[in-house]
Write a structure and sequence with these properties.
alpha/beta, four-stranded antiparallel β-sheet, 12 strands
Length: about 250
């Protein structure tokens, strides 16, 4: 079943197309990945789906569970079950970890905090009363943010570069929580330029020049990381004539 669909989505800023005539279907219950070169539009696409400021003046449409959400605010999209985990994890000076985790949870119980922290490999007795501030490492903050997503139990989770700035130990727990989120029935979209992160996906899209130029299984998309990139409108393509014939 299609959970989210983008139809002919175009986003233009200062005379430059960040997304152009983009079509995409996100199936419910899968882990999807969006891969592509720097500047291809990967993070822009995630921000547009979430409806962040500066990314809402689009043409085309965004359909969630059969209903257009193009005009919805961030808060309205969040109420429908969409959430975005940013590349740089959250830092809120003075807010306790437990309060941060429970902010988006329907159940406001200490058991929810403890379960979520255990899922990301952080001892609740040590972390639940700490502040989400600079005393936490980037990996700790990333794990705490994912613990809050787990407690939230959203319909669709967008993760922008989930491996950015984390150590190998944290990465293991991040990958485990992605599987747990999927197993609970949520849909995950991973924005990444990492083959290691791509391995966590069931299905993937290749984006370039603000367009989806290829899609398929995770294994098929590994061709991109092997230097077998599909011809597209990227400035690095050496043969524009051949490119124009092959773009899908």
């Amino acid at each position: 079943m299609t959970l989210l669909e983008l139809k002919d989505v175009t986003l233009e800023k200062e005379g430059k197309y960040l997304l152009k005539n983009l079509d995409m279907e996100i199936w419910a219950g899968y882990v999807h990945a969006i891969v592509g070169p720097n500047g291809a539009g990967k993070s822009t696409l995630a921000h547009t789906i979430m409806g962040l400021s500066g990314y809402r003046q689009i043409s085309g449409d965004i359909i969630f569970e059969g209903k257009s959400i193009k005009e919805y605010s961030i808060d309205e999209r969040a109420k429908l079950g969409l959430t975005l985990v940013f590349q740089e994890p959250a830092r809120f000076e003075g807010i306790k970890v437990s309060d941060f985790i429970l902010a988006g949870s329907k159940e406001k119980k200490v058991e929810v905090v403890e379960n979520a922290l255990n899922k990301v490999g952080l001892n609740p007795q040590i972390y639940k009363d700490r502040a989400v501030d600079k005393t936490l490492s980037g990996g700790e903050r990333k794990r705490i943010e994912l613990a809050s997503v787990y407690a939230m139990n959203p319909r669709l989770v967008l993760m922008d570069e989930p491996d950015s700035g984390v150590d190998l130990d944290s990465l293991k727990y991040i990958f485990d929580i992605i599987k747990d989120i999927k197993n609970r029935g949520s849909t995950v979209v991973l924005v990444t330029h990492s083959p290691t992160v791509l391995k966590q996906a069931d299905h993937a899209f290749l984006i370039c020049g603000g367009k989806i130029v290829d899609k398929g299984t995770m294994h098929k998309m590994f061709e991109y990381f092997s230097g077998k990139c599909k011809p597209c409108a990227h400035v690095g393509n050496p043969d524009e004539t051949e490119m124009s014939k092959n773009v899908t």
